[in-house]
Write a structure and sequence with these properties.
Elements: E1 7-8, H1 14-25, H2 29-41, E2 48-53, H3 57-68, E3 72-77, H4 85-93, E4 98-101, H5 107-119, E5 124-127, H6 131-138, H7 141-144, E6 149-152, H8 155-166, E7 174-176, H9 181-204, E8 212-216, H10 220-231, E9 235-239, H11 243-251, E10 255-256, H12 259-265, E11 268-271, H13 281-286, E12 291-295, H14 305-310, E13 314-320, E14 323-329, E15 332-337, H15 343-346, H16 353-373, E16 381-382, H17 386-400, H18 409-416
Parallel strand pairs: 1-4, 2-3, 2-5, 3-4, 5-6, 6-7, 7-16, 8-9, 8-11, 9-10, 11-12, 12-15
Antiparallel strand pairs: 13-14, 14-15
Helix pairs in contact: 1-3, 1-4, 2-3, 2-16, 3-4, 3-16, 9-10, 9-16, 16-17
The chain binds adenine.
């Protein structure tokens, strides 16, 4: 079969997609500054980049930036349900990136698209969930030899990559962009917090005020979701397995308890743990009639959907768009949102552009850093250099019109000295 330059739902949607991309661009000033510099100096000239990301208007602006830097770019989706089809069309038509992504694509097509990106012979990859790295290392080992380094956008991906490094199977260097403060402190917390509730509300139209919301997981994403749910007037319970995180949730003023009892009181359940089967049969059995369950963790494994299906008398798809009713008995139904996939990207449009600005500025600068390093990076999981984080934070503050203090000479010397005490 001839190789296709792209595989998107409908290229004629490009004008609508372009409008959305330019709208997001208004809120991505740091990335725009980097794009301007990249356009002048072409730091990525001739580099083949393969990206597996959520295909959104924010990602489009990152792709434009990589192109402006002189890279050849191919992009596939990191989730079958998060692709914005109009955006995908515009990225191809208006910005010259090879895109392989269709909203609602089957798992088979999802993997075909990963292979299509690898067929473009990338030298640098950018992943959101480590699927490209995993495919390169397991099925495309010849192509893995071309890779200078890969960048990883999400917590789940970094966990997978660290496991590969620990097991000695990592084949090339990776940069944990997720772990940069300019990424997870803002994107995971404020981005996931706002967009997850946006997804729940768009899908269901429920009133959050007075609702009992259960948030499973109190990592950066869970903190954001719990904080925003409380802000909307919900009564929030947090479940955790990590004592430190649980303690933090308690001191942040949340009700903390095991899922076994949270299941009995919750009305909306949101999983953000990164682990599997956080909601399972024993919990579904205890839930109230009408409970809403959804996931904002990277993979669709946090809710045991096969178990939910097995215990249901009837499964009714699309009682509203993206809402499936699982009828457990005559007087009890559980509603699952977006097939248990990321609710913030499936039922809403993902994190707002302003927060993706920092994540993607960090990605773009990390790509430039990798090119500068050439083959000098060791095969390991690397942190983003502190200088990149400082630059992104500084530019974001500038763009927001926020000034901060500077250390006086006397203060700087004080911090450097060990002599001064009581
Ligand atoms: N991950 C979460 N939100 C996103 C967005 N808006 N674009 C790309 N990736 C995302």
């Amino acid at each position: 079969m001839a190789k296709r330059r792209c595989d998107v739902t409908n290229l004629n949607l490009a004008p609508d997609g372009k409008k959305k991309i330019l709208w997001s661009d208004r809120d991505m000033p740091v990335l725009a500054l980097i794009r301007e510099r990249f356009d002048k100096h072409k730091p990525l000239k001739g580099v083949h980049m393969g990206c597996c990301m959520h295909v959104t208007s924010e990602t489009a602006n990152l792709m434009r930036t990589l192109k402006a830097g002189g890279a050849e770019v191919a992009l596939c989706a990191s989730n079958p349900l998060s692709t914005q089809d109009a955006t995908a069309a515009s990225i191809v038509k208006d910005f010259g990136v090879a895109v392989y992504a269709r909203r609602g694509e089957s798992v088979q097509v999802f993997y075909d698209h990963l292979h299509a990106v690898i067929d473009t012979k990338p030298q640098i990859t950018m992943d959101d969930g480590a699927d490209l790295v995993n495919t390169l290392q397991t099925q495309r080992q010849k192509d893995a030899k071309n890779i200078l380094a890969s960048m990883e956008e999400t917590t789940t991906g970094v966990i997978r990559l660290r496991a590969m490094a620990r097991d000695g199977i990592l084949k090339f260097p990776v940069v944990a962009v997720n772990d940069a403060a300019t990424k997870h402190l803002f994107d995971n917390r404020y981005g996931t917090g706002q967009s997850t509730l946006d997804g729940v509300v768009r899908a269901t139209d429920v009133l959050l005020a007075g609702k009992h919301v259960v948030v499973a997981g109190y990592g950066w994403c869970g903190r954001g979701v719990a904080m925003r749910a409380r802000g909307a007037g919900a009564i929030v319970t947090v479940t955790e397995v990590d004592p430190l995180k649980a303690l933090e949730a308690v001191m942040d003023g949340f009700d903390v308890r095991p899922m076994s009892t949270a299941a009995e009181i919750g009305e909306v359940f949101i999983t953000v743990t990164g682990d599997k089967h956080v909601l399972r049969a024993e919990h579904f059995r205890r839930m109230k009639n009408g409970a809403i369950v959804c996931n904002s963790g990277h993979f669709d494994v946090e809710i045991d959907i096969p178990a939910l299906r097995k215990m249901s008398q009837k499964v009714i798809k699309d009682v509203r768009p993206l809402v499936t009713e699982f009828r457990i008995s005559r007087n009890k139904s559980i509603h699952l949102l977006a097939d248990g996939r990321l609710v913030n990207l499936s039922a809403a449009t993902g994190h707002p552009a302003s927060v993706m600005d920092m994540s993607f500025a960090t990605q773009a600068l990390a790509a430039e850093w990798i090119v500068k390093k050439g083959r000098k990076l060791s095969v390991a999981v690397h942190d983003v250099p502190k200088s990149i984080e400082d630059q992104v934070a500084k530019l974001k503050l500038q763009a927001m019109g926020v000034n901060i203090d500077r250390l006086s000479r006397e203060q700087a010397l004080y911090l450097e000295s060990s002599g001064e005490g009581t």
